[in-house]
Amino acid sequence: KKFSWHYLPVILLLVLVNYLLRFWKWDYYLKLLNIPVGKKDSFIIFMSGLIMAVTPGKFGEVLKAYLLKKINLTPIAKSSPIILAERVTDLLGLCAIAGVGAYSLHFGTRIVMATTLIIFGIVIVLGIEPLFLKITSLMERVKLVKKHVIRVERAYESASSLLALKKLFIPTIISILSWFCECLAFYLVLAGLGSNVSCFNAAFIYSFATIVGALSMLPGGIGTTETSMTGILIILKVLRPVAVAATFIIRTCTLWFAVVIGAIFFFTNHNKFGKLDDVIEKESLVE
Questions:
Q1: Distance between CA atoms of 130 and 221, rounded to whole angstroms?
Q2: CA of residue 175 relative to chain centroid, distance
Q3: DSSP label at 255?
Q4: In this predicted model, what pLDDT tens digit does every residue of 91-121 receive, in sequence order?
Q5: What angle in degrees, to the nearest 10, is found between the helix axes of 8-32 and 81-105?
Q6: The whole model's pTM is what?
Q7: One Pfam family of this protein, by short name (predicted)?
Q8: Separation between Cα atoms, residue 257 and residue 276, nearest integer Å
Q9: Rounded to the nearest 5 degrees, what angle is found at the Cα of 266, between the Cα atoms of 261 and 267?
C-alpha cells in the first residue's frame, strides 16, 4: 500500500535494458563462433530463452541452442557452450559488483571470493586441453556419465574458445553494466517503499543475493535469493515488512517478468520454432 507506483515504469525499463545488454552479449558470442543468424531471429531466440529463467542456474536457456538449430541448423554442441559462457560472465559481473560492497561492509567476502575462484577454476580447466581430456577420460570410467562424454567433447571446442581469458573482458564488462541496471531497479524499489538504503548498499544486496541463488542451483534461485535479500535488508535495519515487500516486488519485476516476456516471444513465434513438445523432446538435447 505504501509503494510509490510511479517508480514502476522506470524499474521495468531498467530491467529491459538488462535484457538488451545481455542480448548484446549473446550476439557477441554468436559472432565469435561465426554462427550466421539475422539480428531479428537472434533477438527472438534470446528473448524466448527468458522463459527458462526459472531453471537451475538458468541453464534451461540451452533452449536457445535448440531454437537456433531450428532456424539455421547450427549443431547444438557448437552453440550450447554460449549458455555456459553467459553464466560464467554473469557471475563474474555480479562478483565484481558484490565484491566492492562485501569489502566495504565486511559481509559475504568469502562467498564472493569462493565464487570467483570457482569460475576461474572452470576457465583454467577449459583452457588447458590435456587437463580437460584427462578429466573426460576419467568420466568415461563412470557408467552414469559415460554416455555424455562424447557430447561434452563436442562442445569443448566452442567452450574453450569463448572462455579464453583474453575473451572474458568484453562480456564481463557487459555483464557488470547489465546487472547494475537491475541493482538500480532494486534501489528504486526500496526508494518507492520509503527506505533510505543507499544505492551502493542496494547494489551489494541484490548482486550478493543473486549469486547465492545461482549457487544454490534451485530453480530461479527461488527461496535462497529471497531469503538472502530479505535477511541482509533486515541486518541493515530495514523494517521486516518493507524488506519482504521490496524482495517480492523486485523478484516479480525481474524473475517473473522475464518468464512472461520469454513466454510471449516464444509462443508468438511458435510457427518458426514448432510446438513446445517438439522443443523439449529428449532427442533435441542429445544431437
A1: 34
A2: 9
A3: I
A4: 999 999 998 888 777 777 788 888 888 887 8
A5: 130
A6: 0.85
A7: LPG_synthase_TM
A8: 20
A9: 105
